Amino acid sequence: MTFIFAFANQKGGVGKTTTTVNMAAYLAARNARVLLIDTDPQANATSSLNVALGEGDYTLYDTLINQVPLQETIVRTARKNLSVVPSHAVLAGAEVELIQVIARETILKKAMADIGQDYDFIFIDTPPSLGLLTVNALTAADHGVIIPIQCEYLALEGLTQLTHTIELVRENLNPALTIAGMVMTMFDYRTNLAAQVVQEVHKHFPDLAFKTIIPRNVRLSEAPSYGEDILSFAPASKGAQAYRNLTEEFLMRIRPKVNKGG
């Protein structure tokens, strides 16, 4: 069985890609077969995994626009068991190019149909928007969406809009879509405000918020510039420990689904 999750938040800079990449790395380190699909034209997940594209290499754009089989775009990373469907800046034009395409919201889901059996987990990193690329990711995410939320004053701003979009996708495109969890990121232990934001999220979403909180951590910020996940770059750091704990908590949440076979 393959678990497919999208990571989404229309606000930028909330640790979405950091969370996607590092949870994928920890799962791969546990011998799970993991595929990360980068649907963000900024391609931060791609560069964070040190995937350098050569001339003529396929990316997600080629699948969405030119019908190249998704299998042909997959690149193995330096971490065993972790592969990526890379993104590229040209993907920014995909939403315009797809306007006239029939069933444009389901293109990614259909493209993934032939690769599901090859992986235990498929994580889809999304752009900081609620456009067509994010909708495609939500439509394909048959086991839910994980929402990273920055521990700052405006953290909850836009969350209503995001949950509304998720509800629309559930009603019209993906009946299986649920919110699988909310991850509090960039927590600063020195401020009362950060603690208050965490309390508010846990108050309003007690069953959705993960107990593990991701701290602000220099090593987490540095790792992408070296093309490494935090497990490779600084395994003893507080950031690494936090993502290790988050991955364990994530696995505990989905364990009932594993036992039920779905």
Q: What would you note in describing this structure?
A:
- This protein is an alpha/beta fold and 262 residues long.
- It has a single domain, classed as 3-Layer(aba) Sandwich (Rossmann fold), CATH 3.40.50.300.
- 39% of the residues lie in helices and 16% in strands.
- It has helices at 16-29, 44-48, 60-66, 94-97, 107-111, 132-140, 159-172, 192-204, 218-222, 230-233, 238-260, and strands spanning 3-7, 34-38, 75-76, 82-85, 121-125, 145-150, 179-187, 209-215.
- It has an eight-stranded mixed β-sheet with strand order 3-4-2-5-1-6-7-8, sandwiched between helices.
- A hairpin with a 5-residue loop joins strand 3 (75-76) and strand 4 (82-85).
- Helix 1 (16-29) crosses helix 11.
- The longest helix is centred in the last third of the chain and has 23 residues, at 238-260.
- It is globular and about 50 Å long.
